[in-house]
Amino acid sequence: MEVGLDPALPTYSGGLGVLAGDTLRSAADLRVPMVGVSLLHRKGYFRQHLDASGRQTESPVEWHPEQHLQAVAPVVTITLEGRPVKVRAWQFLVRGIASDTVPVYLLDTALPDNSPWDQALTDHLYVGDERYRLGQEVVLGMGGVAMLRALGYEGELHYHMNEGHSALLAVALLERQTASRGLASATDEDLDAVRAQCIFTTHTPVPAGHDKFPLPVVKKTLNPAYTEALEAAQCCVDGTLNMTYLALFFSRYINGVAMRHGEVSRDMFPAYPINAITNGVHAVTWTCAAFRELFDRSIAQWRADNIYLRYAMDIPLHEIEKAHVQAKRDLLTEVNARTGVQLDDTVLTIGYARRATPYKRADLLFTDVERLRRMARTIGPLQVLYAGKAHPKDTEGKAMIQRIYQAAATLAEDVRVLYLEEYDMALAQQLCAGVDLWLNTPRQPQEASGTSGMKAAMNGVPSLSVLDGWWIEGHIEGVTGWSIGGGHEQGEDPSGDSASLYDKLERVILPLFYGRPAGFVEVMRSTIALNGSFFNTQRMVSQYVTNAYFPAGNGRSAPPGGALREQRG
């Protein structure tokens, strides 16, 4: 549903979209024959505006697709609420480290033949009522399949669905499979033929991430034959169409996005075999200029093969420190330009930038402001940088931002706290690289993976995080960062988490940063070597190719890079 291709293109809202973009970037690097499909989002997610008290308001994004994208010729037609809706596409080429590219097609219904309501279907990301959202998912799933066919992508294709938003593509494939007989005639062999083409990745254990649509809306939106097929596929539960169940039913390979998330997903959906491929980030994209230059000098092969970052352990500590100092100064210059506040580059700077929603607990740091004040006065100064948008309808998330503003006012004389508005890829690149410590505080087990800490790790920034998602795999205490609370087997204890957070800051991190700075840089170096070398999309995409797209033993091997483009001719 979203894809982060470029900071200038508002086609994403957060981590899921950026992950999709990073996946495509690594596919281009590795010459994997891949095509991306999403929606255009003419008005983006939204522009975030924060007033002096932290109250968030929103406005549409203004951008011009024709200035960034190439229109492609085909126009396809789908049926929505019994009427034809025309869909065109815009192409963006994701370029790899060599000359290879991966095309991305952004679907657009803003065509004069469509009604005003239909034209607006590809305007907004994650905004709108159930009718609007289901209409978007018809465009993405069914329109996406039709567009790929119109563009000449034929043969043995594998459709990788990220979340259930695109799951209606399975119905489009089943319709093609039973074209001469009709959907009602679908046999087990037909279902298996569709499953052979589909891979599904679930990205969240949070209920809001699993779309459900009331059956009356579904029956009004879709052809009756489609509705009957959905009911037969056992994805209509309690009077709703569950898009996750639809994707599960029609997929031959299913995975979560961290080892722990795989366990959680198997508990949520026990009838399905769910694997795990842990997320990553695109190393070159998320490594800042100072560290790119350092790695180019010290580890020549790192761009082509990210595992070479293991040899960061051979980089002298003073070189790591020098690169980080430059990244931090660059960040604080940007902060000053945005806020007029000049922060001190010698002060321990904590970064937190996530979607502002309650389960991520962005305000956990301020559970005991007096203790925070005391440690800043007695051990060493602190400053904190926040960023992140709350969904326009997430009143609790918006209230959390306001609580952070209130804490900032309370601590103003002792701990500088700034909340940077309009968090996007460009700000993330600077923030993840320039802070000294990355903070992550989700409720267990609701963090499917998390990738912001991985971005920080590329730049030697260690994490202080709850043991959930990817951090269970990336955490080595005192080596790659520090844990908050105990492991997931101990259950959730919010008061224990806040106490643990303060204990680690007061007794370990602040004393290390100010009392033994070389020791802190050692942690930075091992963060790059151990986590940067593994938690990248180069490794992740390679696992998808081997385990999901072209698994050993199925009689097929991975096609050479560019095979689909050659077929298109």
Give the secondary structure arrangement, pairings included.
Blueprint: H1 15-30, E1 36-39, E2 47-50, E3 56-59, E4 70-71, E5 76-80, E6 83-95, E7 101-108, H2 116-119, H3 130-150, E8 159-162, H4 169-177, H5 188-195, E9 198-201, E10 212-214, H6 215-221, H7 224-232, E11 236-237, E12 240-242, H8 243-249, E13 253-256, H9 259-268, E14 275-276, H10 283-286, H11 289-298, H12 317-339, E15 348-353, H13 369-378, E16 382-387, H14 395-410, E17 415-420, H15 425-434, E18 437-440, H16 452-458, E19 463-466, H17 471-474, E20 481-484, H18 494-515, H19 517-532, H20 537-549, H21 563-568
Parallel strand pairs: 1-7, 8-9, 9-13, 13-14, 15-16, 15-18, 16-17, 18-19, 19-20
Antiparallel strand pairs: 2-3, 4-6, 5-6, 6-7, 10-12, 11-12
Helix pairs in contact: 1-20, 3-4, 4-5, 11-12, 12-15, 12-19, 15-16, 16-19, 18-19
Note down, in words, how this protein is organized.
With 569 residues, the chain is α/β, with parallel strands linked by helices. The protein folds into 3 domains: 1-154, no CATH class; 158-277, Glycogen Phosphorylase B (Rossmann fold, 3-Layer(aba) Sandwich), CATH 3.40.50; 283-539, Glycogen Phosphorylase B (Rossmann fold, 3-Layer(aba) Sandwich), CATH 3.40.50. 41% of the residues lie in helices and 16% in strands. It contains 21 helices and 20 strands. The strands form 5 sheets. A 6-stranded parallel β-sheet has the order 17-16-15-18-19-20, sandwiched between helices. Strands 1, 4, 5, 6 and 7 form a 5-stranded mixed β-sheet that branches. β11 (236-237) and β12 (240-242) form a beta hairpin. It is globular, with a radius of gyration of 24 Å. The protein starts with 14 loop residues before the first helix and ends with a helix. The model is unreliable at 555-569 (pLDDT under 50).
